[in-house]
């Protein structure tokens, strides 16, 4: 999938989005990906981290050679030291100009649980709360979610000055976590969807996100429009008919000559876009980076592609004036 930096002239969908290019801002030796419509809001601090430029050393095997790469890993992992991760996080937050903000993270569990953050909350005594979205309307708090293929979504209500950071992989998307976070903002802060800007950061693109029939069936059961988000034999996979034609033992074909097992590819960006738009956010207010994490492992981490890899963060906060 082409990144947003590649020009598309003819696509009507692109024109409708009026997508200004997402920019990679250089700061403190890092590259911070910014969504232009959020960067324009002076009361907001935001950014999506990228791969290059950190203190962590990720080993890679290429052409039988072992090499090590310096990366900005922001998630604790067995292959990395706690020291490096903390140093990377400090550097990332400084590059966002979020110094002095209290960082609020989560133990992400691919759920639809939304956590509301207040500046008066005491520090969590043991661990971060288990949830997959954070919302607040208070300043001085930096809401962060961690990703490596799942779609990070940032919301900003321009009128009520409220924000959300959401982690939406295929399970979260299936559970409509972005819509639920928006609903919670409506309830808690009086947010009206038409005032909300949504920025969908880098996640795995449809080009690389192969899913099994069970995922297709679950989406088909929950979303009438799900067919539009998949490439592949959606209907037969959704019906769950194990089409015997491709089963090698029935077709009696010699090994290696079976027709390929049907596969489907899920477009998480399209799904979240559609869910947010159905929830009332004008489609012109919904922006996506169009980077595929699995295609662009030079710039991002991809769990699907690499297995042993780092984590990125999407962060948003309301400035203190
Ligand atoms: Zn891809």
Just name the CATH architecture of the largest domain: 4-Layer Sandwich
Count of alpha and pi helical runs? 10
Indicate the radius of gyration in whole angstroms: 20 Å
What shape does the CA trace take? globular
* Poorly predicted regions: 1-18
Number of strands: 17
- End-to-end Cα distance: 40 Å
Please give the largest β-sheet: 6 strands, mixed
Bound molecules: zinc ion
N-to-C SSE string, H for helix and E for strand: HEEHEEEHEEEEEEHHEEHEHHEHEHE
Structural class: alpha+beta
Approximately how much beta-strand content do the residues carry?
A: 25-35%
Name the CATH superfamily classification of the largest domain: CNF1/YfiH-like putative cysteine hydrolases
Helical content (DSSP H or I, runs of 4+): 10-25%
Kindly identify the CATH topology of the largest domain. Answer: CNF1/YfiH-like putative cysteine hydrolases
What is the average per-residue confidence, as pLDDT, rounded to a whole number? Answer: 90
CATH hierarchy, class of the largest domain: Alpha Beta
Sheet with most strands: strand arrangement: 7-8-11-10-12-16
Count up the domains: 2
Oligomer: single chain
Which secondary structure elements does this structure contain, and how are they paired or packed?
Blueprint: H1 12-17, E1 23-27, E2 30-34, H2 36-39, E3 44-48, E4 52-62, E5 65-71, H3 82-95, E6 102-104, E7 114-116, E8 133-136, E9 141-147, E10 151-157, E11 162-168, H4 170-174, H5 177-189, E12 196-200, E13 210-211, H6 213-222, E14 230-231, H7 234-239, H8 248-251, E15 264-266, H9 268-278, E16 286-288, H10 303-306, E17 312-318
Parallel strand pairs: 6-9, 7-8, 12-16
Antiparallel strand pairs: 1-2, 3-17, 4-5, 8-11, 9-17, 10-11, 10-12, 13-15, 14-15
The protein binds zinc ion.
Zinc ion (ZN) is lined by residues 1, 205, 207-208, 292, 294-295.
């Amino acid at each position: 999938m082409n990144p947003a930096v590649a020009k598309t002239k003819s696509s009507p969908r692109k024109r409708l989005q009026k997508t200004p290019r997402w920019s990679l801002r250089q700061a403190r030796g890092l590259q911070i990906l910014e969504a232009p419509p959020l960067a324009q809001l002076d009361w907001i601090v935001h950014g999506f981290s990228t791969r290059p430029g950190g203190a962590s050393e990720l080993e890679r095997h290429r052409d039988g050679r072992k090499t090590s790469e310096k990366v900005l890993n922001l998630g604790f992992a067995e292959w990395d030291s706690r020291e490096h991760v903390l140093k990377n996080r400090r550097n990332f937050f400084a590059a966002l100009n979020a110094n002095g903000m209290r960082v609020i993270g989560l133990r992400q569990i691919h759920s639809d649980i939304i956590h509301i953050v207040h500046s008066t909350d005491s520090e969590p005594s043991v661990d971060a709360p288990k949830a997959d979205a954070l919302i607040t309307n208070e300043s001085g708090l930096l809401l962060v979610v961690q990703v490596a293929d799942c779609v990070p979504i940032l919301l900003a209500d321009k009128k009520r000055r409220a924000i959300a950071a959401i982690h939406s992989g295929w399970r979260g998307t299936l559970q409509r976590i972005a819509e639920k976070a928006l609903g919670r903002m409506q309830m808690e802060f009086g947010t009206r969807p038409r005032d909300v800007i949504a920025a969908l950061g880098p996640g795995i693109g449809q080009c690389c996100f192969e899913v099994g029939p069970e995922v297709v069936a679950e989406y088909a059961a929950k979303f009438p429009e799900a067919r539009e988000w998949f490439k592949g034999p959606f209907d037969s996979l959704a019906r769950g008919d194990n089409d015997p034609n491709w089963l090698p033992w029935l077709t009696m074909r010699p090994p290696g000559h079976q027709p390929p097992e049907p596969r489907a590819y899920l477009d998480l960006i399209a799904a979240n876009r559609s869910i947010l738009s159905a929830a009332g956010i004008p489609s012109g207010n919904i922006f996506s980076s169009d980077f595929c994490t699995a295609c662009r492992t030079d710039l991002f981490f991809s769990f699907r592609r690499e297995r042993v890899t780092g984590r990125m963060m999407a962060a948003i906060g309301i400035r203190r004036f």
